[in-house]
C-alpha cells in the first residue's frame, strides 16, 4: 500500500509500533532511499524480525529504536492535543469493538493498516 501511494518511492519515515516481525520488516522495506525507520518498543510477537541489512545499506536507511517516553512528557503531549496542534482524530482509521480489536491485533501479523485502529466500544457482551 505504501509503495502504491508513493509511486514506488517509499515513505520518508516509517514507524513500527505493532511489535510483530512482519510489521518491523515491512517498515524497513517501505522506506524511501535515505529514509528513516523507527522501531517503537520491542517486536515480541512470534518469530524475531529479520532485518534485511542489504536493503538498509543499499537504500542508506537510518533505523532508530524508541522504547517509549518519560511520564513527565505526558502533560506536554496532552496540551498539544487540547490546543489542537496535535489532531489525534486524523490518525484514526478505524473504530472497533473489543472483539473486533482482538481480531485486528491478530491480523497485524499479516498486514498493517495505514491509520490507527482504536477500540471505542467495550459493551460487547459476547465472549471473546
UniProtKB/TrEMBL annotation:
Keywords: Oxidoreductase. The keyword Secreted does not apply. One of its GO terms (molecular function) is oxidoreductase activity. It comes from the Eukaryota. Residues 2-81 form the Alcohol dehydrogenase-like C-terminal domain. PANTHER family: ALCOHOL DEHYDROGENASE-RELATED (PTHR43401:SF5), L-THREONINE 3-DEHYDROGENASE (PTHR43401). This is Alcohol dehydrogenase-like C-terminal domain-containing protein.
Amino acid at each position: 500500500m505504501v509503495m502504491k501511494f508513493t509511486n514506488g518511492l517509499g515513505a520518508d519515515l516509517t514507524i513500527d509500533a505493532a511489535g510483530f516481525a512482519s510489521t518491523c520488516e515491512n517498515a524497513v522495506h517501505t522506506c524511501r532511499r535515505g529514509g528513516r525507520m523507527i522501531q517503537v518498543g520491542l517486536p515480541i510477537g512470534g518469530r524475531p524480525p529479520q532485518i534485511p541489512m542489504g536493503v538498509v545499506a543499499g537504500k542508506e536507511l537510518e533505523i532508530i529504536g524508541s522504547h517509549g517516553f518519560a511520564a513527565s512528557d505526558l502533560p506536554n503531549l496532552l496540551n498539544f492535543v487540547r490546543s489542537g496542534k496535535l489532531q489525534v482524530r486524523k490518525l484514526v482509521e478505524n473504530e472497533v469493538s473489543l472483539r473486533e480489536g482482538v481480531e485486528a491485533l491478530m491480523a497485524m501479523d499479516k498486514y498493517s493498516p495505514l491509520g490507527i485502529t482504536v477500540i471505542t466500544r467495550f459493551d460487547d457482551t459476547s465472549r471473546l
